[in-house]
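Subject: Re: docking follow-up (pyridoxal-5'-phosphate)

Dear J.,

Thanks for your patience while I sorted out the input files. As discussed at Tuesday's group meeting, I've set up the holo structure prediction with pyridoxal-5'-phosphate included as the bound ligand rather than trying to dock it afterwards. The sequence and the ligand SMILES I used are pasted below, so you can double-check that they match what you have on your end before we go further.
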Amino acid sequence: MTPPSPRMSAAIPGGQTSKKKDDDVPIPGQLNPSPRLLLGPGPSDAHPRVLTAMATPLLGHLDPQFLAIMNETQDMLRDAFLTKNRLTFPISATGMAGMETCMVNLLEPGDKVVVCVSGFFGTRQVEIAERTGAQMTRLDVPWGTVFDLNQLRETLTKVRPKVLSIVHAETSTGALQPIDQLGKLCHEFGTLLLVDAVTSLGCVPLKLDEWEIDAVYSCTQKGLSCPPGLSPVSFSPRAVEAIGKRKTKVQSWYFDTTMVQKYWEADRFYHHTAPITMIYAIREGLRLVLEEGLETRWARHVANHRALKAGLNAIGLEYSAAEGHQLPQLNAVKIPAGVDDLTVRKKLLADFGIEVGGGLGDFKGKVWRIGLMGHNSRANCVFQVLGALEQCLLSVGCKVAPGAGVAAANRVYAGG
Ligand SMILES: *Cc1c(COP(=O)(O)O)cnc(C)c1O
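The structure tokens for the complex came back this morning:
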């Protein structure tokens, strides 16, 4: 009998190792990260059912059974987006890749594009749109506020762009941009509406067909409670027609929808190897969304947001987004004067295992961003973060009545 190799015998549970490589250099121990509650702007915790699905053995990416799984995933994605758009599938990369896919497919050099900036992710859209060679008109509103339709009508009248691009849920400010009438408005001017729904899918109402959205991208790691790794996109027939009329090839080979769709549709033409495990994950994430029902899911996000908001206000934290435009799934609050951002966030992580987000761009060091997304939108998370935050604020000398946050949240849940 051959003796077990030193590699096999040396794995010690608990993240330690006594193992040496052949050259005597220690190699890292088994993965053993501390338990965390991910209440930042993403990633948010994966649902346990998603993690179980991800342990399913691989299929080949052209196996008839996997092709059936792809079809099921596309069908459920259309249901979650409330669309009949044929060109609906997940891009094999994170949310930013969805942004890039939409931009590079819809825009070519010389095209006119209007990008609406109300926060950090609006500036990202500007950066990517500029790289396509399109003619850029950038509109800005103060961070934490949203665009008004009349203001956009004025710009559409003046510029008559091919594409108007806007962020639905601006994760950097916690503001929800109303877009239900924007598609109709854009179509009066022959403009395509491109929407960033990275933080909105699975959390707040998003109705592609009813709202006449032409191109949309989202992600798996926020409202769908899967790991980061996929970016669902969808294009309306109008957008598909515009892509068909391009004079130049899409600048990116990987993100060229005219090619990827041959894999996702009938031909099953090899484009790239689908990340099988992530497709299992999004399939389970979408099953969870549809089992719960969209309306119920949206209402759950509002209910937990209301409880969290009452609690945060009770411990002296005010929202950075304008009243009436606050995202239920991403609660951005101003850091009280004199309180150090990192001290509190480090304590939350070290003492309570809770991650919340800091500020981006204009809001760096000025806000905390507390996500209650998908699976994490539940009372359990509300009470944990309120209790822990209270303790952290007390420890840095804030005047907080102990228990005030949790009590206020309890009153909301009790219907008060
Ligand atoms: C998170 C986020 C993105 C980027 O997604 P990644 O998964 O980080 O690539 C884009 N837009 C918005 C609004 C986001 O919140």
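A couple of observations from a first look. Residues 64 and 70 are 10 Å apart (CA to CA). The domain at 48-290 is CATH 3.40.640.10 (Aspartate Aminotransferase; domain 2).

Let me know if you'd like me to rerun anything.

Best regards,
T.
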